[in-house]
Automatic annotation (TrEMBL):
Keyword Heme part of the UniProt annotation: no
Gene Ontology CC entries for this record: cytoplasm; nucleus
Cofactor(s) needed for function: FMN
A single GO BP: mRNA processing
Region span, Disordered: 76-108
Protein name: tRNA-dihydrouridine(47) synthase [NAD(P)(+)]
Keywords tagged on the record: Cytoplasm, Flavoprotein, FMN, Metal-binding, mRNA processing, NAD, NADP, Nucleus, Oxidoreductase, Repeat, tRNA processing, Zinc, Zinc-finger
Catalysed transformations (reactions): a 5,6-dihydrouridine in mRNA + NADP(+) = a uridine in mRNA + NADPH + H(+); a 5,6-dihydrouridine in mRNA + NAD(+) = a uridine in mRNA + NADH + H(+); 5,6-dihydrouridine(47) in tRNA + NAD(+) = uridine(47) in tRNA + NADH + H(+); 5,6-dihydrouridine(47) in tRNA + NADP(+) = uridine(47) in tRNA + NADPH + H(+)
Family: Belongs to the Dus family. Dus3 subfamily.
Organism for this UniProt entry: Saccharomyces cerevisiae x Saccharomyces kudriavzevii (strain VIN7)
Listed EC numbers: 1.3.1.89
Occurrences of domain DUS-like FMN-binding (ranges): 151-428
Length: 524
C-alpha cells in the first residue's frame, strides 16, 4: 500500500473515496500557511516566478524604455554641442565608420552597428512620442494624511506586532519596515515578509522601498502592486543615513543625485497603477548645507508624488541634535508656493486637479502631544506630523494627542502594553521554539526604547526631551523600576513573564546599541 499520507484528509473526497485535484481543494486549506488576520501574502507561484526570473515586468520595461530615450537624447544633445556634430539624431554612423577605417567591416561588427542604429531610431521615436507629456502621470487613489496620526517606518522595531499595537493605541497610518528593492525583485523570503500587514492596519498601510536606480524602483513597485493588494501607498526611502545603503547609492544618497531620485519616483508612479507614490527625505546630506527647499520645487514640477515627508535633520546629524522645525516649516511654505506656480502652467492645468495638493508631513523630535500640536498648528502648510522614537518610548502618545493631556501610565498599565505586544508577537511568529526565540528577541529590541520612559510623577520638570539621558532613578514600585532598568538582563527577565524561562544559550545584543546605557549585551 505504500506510506500513509499524513495530510490525506486535505485532498480526499470521503464520500466517493477519490482524490481531489489541486484546483478543487478548499481555499481555506490552500491558505493554511498564512496567519489569520494578516494580509499582503505573496503567492508561492508569484514568488517562484520572481526567483526564476519569469515575472513579466511589462510596465517596468515600458517606462524604462521611455526613461532611457530621454537620457539618450540628453547625451546626444550634449555631445552634439561639444563636437559641433550636425549628424541627424536617430541615424547611425556606420558609413562614417567605414570611411574612417578604410577597411571592410567584419560581418559581426556590421550587424552590431545595425542593431545599435535600429535601437537608437527606436529610442528617438519613443522620445518624440513622450517629450511633451507627463508620461508618468497616472490616475491614483486619493491619499489623505491631513492631521493623521502617523507612525514612521522603523527598521527592526517597526515590525507587524508593534504596528498592530500602535493601531490599537490610536495610530491612523503605519508603514512597513524598509524593504530593499533588489531582494524584492529576486523573491527573497525575508524581504517579502516585510510588506505583510495586519487587517487592523488597512486602510492606511504603506510599504517603504529603498533603491539606487530607476530599474530597481520600477520592478520593485510593479512586483508589489501585482502581488499584494492592501497597500495605500508605496514610499521611496530617500533619507536613510546608514553607510552601507549610502555607499550603494540608496537612501539619503539620492539627495545628492536629485535627477536619479526623480527618475525612480516617475518609474514607480508609472507602474503602480492606482497606488500613490510618496517620498521621505532629509534636509540634506551635510550639516549646514540643506537642499530640501530646492528639491521640493523639482518634485512639484517633475514628478507626480502624492506626499513628501521631511525629517528635520541631515544625514550627517543622524539622530543627534534637535530637528530643525524652522527649516521644515520653511520647506512647507516653499512647497505650497511652488505648487501654486505649477498649477498656473499649461502642464499643471492638465495634470493636476485644482483641489488636489501634495501632502506634506514633518518628522523629528516629537515626544508628546505638545510637540505634535506645536509643529502641526504652527504652520497650516504642514498636513501632519510623523512620530518615530517618541512612539517607541511612549506607545500611548496618540492617546495623549486625542486627550490633549499628559497620561502618566502606571507600571501595571505599561505591563498591559507589553502583554499586548507579546501576544501579537506570538500570533505573528508562532509559539514553537523558533517562534518564541524571535518573539523574545524583538521584545528585547522594543524594550531598548520602551525602558527610556521616565514617569511624570517622579520628575522635577516635565516633559523630558527625546535626546536627554536622565540619571538613574527609582520607580514608584518595583515593577516600574524594573521596566525602567537599563540592564539588558532585566529586559530578558520581563520577557520571561510572557514567553517562559529563557534558554541558557540565549544571547541578546541590541541592534540599536545607542539606546542602551550599559554595554548592551546579555547572555543567559
Amino acid at each position: 500500500m505504500g506510506f500513509k499520507c499524513r495530510f490525506l484528509s486535505s485532498h480526499l473526497n470521503k464520500e466517493e473515496s477519490t482524490l481531489i485535484s489541486t484546483k478543487e481543494v478548499d481555499p481555506e486549506t490552500q491558505t493554511i500557511w498564512s496567519v489569520k488576520g494578516e494580509t499582503n501574502h505573496i503567492s508561492p507561484e508569484t514568488k517562484l516566478d520572481l526567483i526564476k526570473r519569469r515575472f513579466p515586468f511589462t510596465k517596468s520595461n515600458e517606462v524604462l524604455e521611455i526613461i532611457d530615450s530621454f537620457q539618450q537624447e540628453c547625451r546626444d544633445s550634449m555631445k552634439a554641442e561639444e563636437e559641433g556634430d550636425s549628424t541627424p539624431k536617430g541615424k547611425g554612423k556606420d558609413q562614417e565608420f567605414d570611411k574612417e577605417s578604410g577597411q571592410p567591416v567584419a560581418p559581426q561588427v556590421e550587424q552590431r552597428i545595425k542593431e545599435l542604429s535600429e535601437h537608437r531610431i527606436r529610442q528617438r521615436e519613443v522620445y518624440l512620442k513622450y517629450k511633451d507629456t507627463r508620461y508618468f502621470a497616472q490616475e491614483k487613489k486619493p491619499l489623505d494624511l491631513h492631521r493623521k496620526k502617523i507612525i514612521s517606518p522603523l527598521t527592526t522595531v517597526g515590525n507587524l506586532p508593534y504596528r498592530r499595537l500602535m493601531r490599537k493605541l490610536g495610530a491612523d497610518v503605519t508603514y512597513s519596515e524598509m524593504a530593499l528593492a533588489i531582494p524584492l525583485i529576486q523573491g527573497t523570503n525575508s524581504e517579502w515578509a516585510l510588506p505583510k500587514a495586519h487587517k487592523s492596519e488597512v486602510p492606511g498601510f504603506g510599504v517603504q522601498v529603498a533603491c539606487s536606480k530607476a530599474w530597481q524602483a520600477a520592478k520593485a513597485a510593479e512586483a508589489l502592486t501585482d502581488s499584494v493588494s492592501d497597500i495605500s501607498e508605496i514610499n521611496l526611502n530617500s533619507g536613510c543615513p546608514i553607510d552601507l545603503l549610502y555607499r550603494q547609492g540608496s537612501g539619503s544618497a539620492l539627495l545628492d543625485n536629485p535627477a536619479r531620485m526623480i527618475r525612480c519616483l516617475n518609474a514607480m508612479n508609472y507602474v503602480s497603477k492606482e497606488i500613490p507614490i510618496t517620498v521621505k527625505i532629509r534636509t540634506g546630506t551635510k550639516e549646514g548645507h540643506p537642499i530640501a527647499e530646492g528639491l521640493v520645487k523639482r518634485l512639484v514640477n517633475e514628478t507626480d508624488v502624492a506626499a513628501i515627508t521631511l525629517h528635520g535633520r541631515s544625514r550627517q546629524q543622524r539622530y543627534t541634535k534637535s530637528a530643525d522645525w524652522e527649516y521644515v516649516s520653511q520647506v512647507a511654505d516653499t512647497l505650497r508656493s511652488a505648487e501654486a506656480d505649477f498649477k498656473e502652467t499649461e502642464q499643471g492645468k492638465e495634470s493636476r486637479d485644482s483641489k488636489k495638493r501634495i501632502q506634506f508631513v514633518g518628522n523629528g523630535d516629537v515626544n508628546n502631544f505638545e510637540d505634535w500640536y506645536r509643529y502641526l498648528e504652527g504652520n497650516t502648510n504642514i498636513d501632519s506630523v510623523m512620530v518615530a522614537r517618541g512612539a517607541l518610548i511612549k506607545p500611548w502618545i496618540f492617546e495623549e494627542v486625542d486627550s490633549q493631556q499628559y497620561l502618566d501610565k502606571t507600571s501595571t498599565e505599561r505591563l498591559e502594553i507589553l502583554k499586548d505586544y507579546a501576544q501579537f508577537s506570538m500570533e505573528h511568529w508562532g509559539t514553537d521554539e523558533y517562534g518564541i526565540s524571535l518573539c523574545r528577541r524583538f521584545f528585547c529590541e522594543f524594550m531598548s526604547f520602551f525602558h527610556r520612559y521616565v514617569p511624570m510623577g517622579i520628575c522635577e520638570r516635565y516633559p523630558v526631551k527625546l535626546n536627554e539621558r536622565p540619571p538613574n532613578w527609582c520607580g514608584r514600585d518595583d515593577l516600574e523600576t524594573l521596566m525602567g532598568s537599563t540592564d539588558v538582563n532585566d529586559w530578558i527577565k520581563l520577557s520571561d513573564m510572557f514567553f517562559g524561562k529563557t534558554d541558557e544559550n540565549f544571547v541578546f545584543v541590541p541592534k540599536h546599541k545607542s539606546n542602551s546605557y550599559t554595554s548592551g549585551e546579555a547572555r543567559r
